[in-house]
Amino acid sequence: MVYAVATVAAALLLATIWLFRRRKKQGRQAGLICLLIAIVLHVALVFCIPLLPKPRGGSHTADPEATEMVGIDEVAFSTFDPEMDDQANSAANDQADIAPLPLSEISDSLVSEIEEMAEPVAEPIAEPVDGSVAENESELLIPSVIPGQLDTPIEPLAAEEIEDMFKSLDADFAKLAQLGTPTPAIKSQTVSARSEQATPSPNPPESVPPSPQSPVPPSTVPPSTVPPSTVTASSIPAPATIAGEVENDFANRVGDAKTRALMQTGGSVQTEAAVAAALKYLASTQRRDGAWDPVSTGAGEERQTLGMNRFGAGSKADTAITGLALLSFMGSGQTHQNGEYANNIYKGLVFLINQQKADGSLAGDAAIYASTYSHGMASLAMAEAAAITQDPSAIESARRAIHYSRRMQHPTTGGWRYTPHDKGDLSQLGWQAMVLVAGDRAGIPASRESMRGVERFLRSVRKGRYGGLASYRPGEATSVTMTAEALATRLLMGEKVRPEEIAEAEQSLLRQKPGSGQDNYYYWYYATVALHQLQSDAWTEWNEAMQKRLLETQLPNGQWPTTSVWGGYGGSIYTTSMATLCLESYYRHSVKKEE
């Protein structure tokens, strides 16, 4: 209507000019009438234009089906919104559609401590396929993260701290020995040697994280007024049970179950020390608003990987690397309710919910090549937080994100790519499938239609003599990265993969183990997840190579370098997070038992 009024007003002005140029008196009278009407219409426009809907940020295309979300904005976030103030609202980038999580709960002392830390070095995002992909995979762009050198050096851990860490782990190993659990051989490595290699800066002391009360439907309960420092019994996750004795996919991340899973499936003191160093690095580079910043860590460097210009993809993918960092913290057993890094996780979740759009997208302002990856990585972090803690705010945010993912899916092929209803590629599908699976564990049932679509797409890219290999898109050449991603996705979804398919995939992956060719954290992550589920001889061989390469390349401040295949598009947060997720594989997902 506004555009129609503007058109009529402009037409009347033109008619006025034409009529005034006529010599006849009647023409001038008609022109005066047209002029008056045009003035009235222009005045009306002054009041109507501000009522037009403002365009949202981000690169993804709006989906006409977004009308399904009508009414969702009325839901209030009770857990993350105890004492919201005006400053927190203004910091939410005007995302009024989704009730923002409060930053006001973070004490002034904590803010000042964060300001004194090293300048933000957060980074871009995830990266896609490995260097061995065929040329026709050159379109695959995955926001990655490149490590840049910190302007402010990070102080290494004191030798005493490392020694205490090792003593704690040794005590756990001794406990396992008493239980009769076989302890894997661990290569000798002295504390002093380890402290010289890869120990990151200590995390400054932080106040006790704001902890929500027992979960309750956010739509029916007013914001909590309990002080942020209050920790209730309901806010502390129940201890995990022993590995293999529980259906919960995340049960092995804490307690005795974590120690046993670590030792039974190939972890060591060294891998845990590397994870601890990486988490301290990630904590030290978090921004005040809870995000990890791509730009300050060199994200978006265009290296034309695989011969394609992606225009610096990853430079605006802050939700992606924030999601990856959060996954790294939660993978080690931390949550926003409990643990050493509870405040870091809390602020990260606050940032993501503040960035979530009315249609549920968590892509933020990422460019087209990074947009879907950003949504997938951030959504996976939110869904895991929801599944582990049952926090109502996280559940609601995850529900919106999953709703958006389902509407982005191609209705026929079952895939995802860069814009809604793209035919899809396997690299994008892996993240979205895991979002659906994690959401299901959080009590957000996965649509049967969506899951059938995932299975349909996985079948369409299956290759090889027995179907154990996979390609980026149907009809294209296979690659080890896509083979790893397909196998990991199928196994985590609970699909029964035939032995001959597994053997074919394992042979392919072992021909390109870590340490051969250019480092590719994206490939290593999916191969590690897949082979860990299998616990075969192939896993033992892969794990040895993966550990060796990651432990010898971790930098003294805890990060991993960005010289990997896709490192130019991301930054040190991406590389460090992906490497950390590899070293958390021993307990991050429970091994699925054959029935």
Automatic annotation (TrEMBL):
Compositional bias per record (Pro residues), positions renumbered to this chain: 201-226
Keywords for the protein's UniProt record, in alphabetical order: Membrane, Transmembrane, Transmembrane helix
SUPFAM superfamilies: Terpenoid cyclases/Protein prenyltransferases
Keyword Membrane on entry: yes
Regions that span the bilayer: 6-21, 33-52
Record InterPro entries: Terpenoid_cyclase/PrenylTrfase
Biased composition (Polar residues): 186-197
Region (Disordered), start-end ranges: 184-235
Domain of life where this protein originates: Bacteria
Protein name: Squalene cyclase C-terminal domain-containing protein
Organism this protein belongs to: Novipirellula aureliae
